[in-house]
Specification:
Number of strands: 5
Strand content: 15-25%
Structural class: alpha/beta
CATH class: Alpha Beta
Distance between the termini: 40 Å
Largest sheet: 5 strands, parallel
Number of helices: 7
Order of helices and strands: EHEHHEHEHHEH
Number of domains: 1
Shape: globular
Length: about 160
Amino acid sequence: MKILIALDDSQHSDRALEFVTRMRWPAGSRVIVLTTQQPVAPALTAADEAGAVLPGLFEEQRERLEALVARAEGTLREAGFSTEGRVLAGDPREVLVQVALSERADLLVVGSRGRTGIAKLMLGSVSSHVVTHAPCSVLVVKQPGRVTGEAKEQVS
């Protein structure tokens, strides 16, 4: 089984990673750990107030993301998985769908921030996008103990 796990630097990603390591998967399952680096906004790369170019912003971010992927790979290897890590540039929604397609992933795992209403509409949702566009099954790992919207009405 080929599992693609999407990470960012959040507790939601930590939960998704933890979930993958706890589950029993078929022997020989392989995990691709993926994070994305969004292009730096032109206003940030042009110049600061003194007119000096902001040095190394992109490189610092890339190093931080590579360290994130390396830590996740270490965790997965300790749990017995074969892993491959990637830091790719672009919109996470599109990158995830494209990698799932090109790698013929069996499962894509993402964490969910649990945004609803206007926050979800304004900020977009990576998990919602990949659920509707990915060529494979998608597992959205939610924060435990969180009850929202319609579920609240059913509990009441």
